[in-house]
Amino acid sequence: MMTIVHVETGRHLYGGPLQVYYLLRGLKTRGVRNILVCPEGSAIAQAAAEVAEVRALPMRGDLDLGFMVRLRRLLRTEKPALLHLHSRRGSDVLGGIAGRLAQVRCVLTRRVDNPEPRMLVRLKYDLYDRVITISEGIQKVLLGEGVPLAKLQTARDAVDTERFRPGCRWPDWRQAFNLAPDSPVVGMAAQMIERKGHRYLLEAAPHVLTAIPSTRFLIFGRGPLESRLREEVTRRGLTEQIRFVGFREDLDRLLPCLDLLVHPATLEGLGVILLQAAACQLPIVAAAAGGIPEVVRDGVNGRLVAPGDARALAKAMLELLHDTGRRRRMGAAGRRIVEEEFSIDAMVEGNLRVYRGLLASTNFD
Fold this sequence. Notes:
The longest helix has 18 residues, at 324-341. Strand 9, helix 9 and strand 10 (242-246) form a beta-alpha-beta unit. A seven-stranded parallel sheet has the order 3-2-1-4-5-6-7, sandwiched between helices. A six-stranded parallel sheet has the order 10-9-8-11-12-13, with helices on both faces. It is built from 14 helices and 13 strands. With 365 residues, the chain is an alpha/beta fold. It is elongated and about 65 Å long. The protein has helices at residues 16-29, 43-47, 65-78, 92-101, 118-125, 136-144, 173-176, 198-211, 226-235, 251-254, 272-279, 310-321, 324-341, 344-360, and strands at residues 3-7, 33-39, 53-57, 82-85, 105-110, 130-133, 152-154, 185-189, 216-220, 242-246, 260-263, 284-287, 302-305. It has two domains: 3-158 and 343-360, Glycogen Phosphorylase B (Rossmann fold); 173-341, 3-Layer(aba) Sandwich (Rossmann fold), CATH 3.40.50.2000.
């Protein structure tokens, strides 16, 4: 039986950690023994208990040399076939060093497309035998920074199409959010950090509201920019039209009820929320950044605009809000795309191909 040690430093069960959970579940059904190293008290530790042997360890970030020692000790005890590092903060460099010290082959999943200093890239990526990118867009970034093509393979993220499916199953959802029965509702769900592009939505919203005053915007999520974004909405006098509704664990119930999802990110590895929206037959307006065009096909299941172009964002939103039939057709196309290209089985098999190919090689790369 193949034993793999996975390291995930995220504490919540969305985004990357949710993908790790899907992977662990799929690997277990294929006879793989999973050992998950994760933070103490994290949501993934609880969720993964049935699909992995969970080893909750103290994790204190990129400078926690003690974590490197603890991980090396675990690797020497368990003697896994592979070490798979799923997170950037607190595990990629320290985890790679621990793998080398323990002489365990090491795979890194790269989830973001932000550039890194070229000197750091050369030193850092020498630690890994293979790098799995969740989109072709991320692979292009790494190739441009000098990572060898032979070390790179793509295994796209996945969406649970049984959980995220069409049809609003919350009859009184408008009442819950104090929305009028005829208000078009646009959603944005992303961590409130600069690269997600919330400010472009705030710049675009007045143009949309001039044309369709009844439009309402629901902004889901939390993050360090939240207070600044709230202040900007207040300054613009749009507190009634733009609502901050916090982090929600029931997006599978909410997304099918919306009219449109907007995602103006300027950097994005792939965008799990885009997969979830498409699975719910929700049309999408997004920036053509990173791996986003691999999910959102312009004119097929949504519209793509240039990153940072708020006027183009507003124009694309209005184009779809004015055309119910087109939104319906785009939503159906999005569902077909995720069913055909972003299934959990495809993601699991993609990772397995990397594992098997690496283990079949006779020497460390």
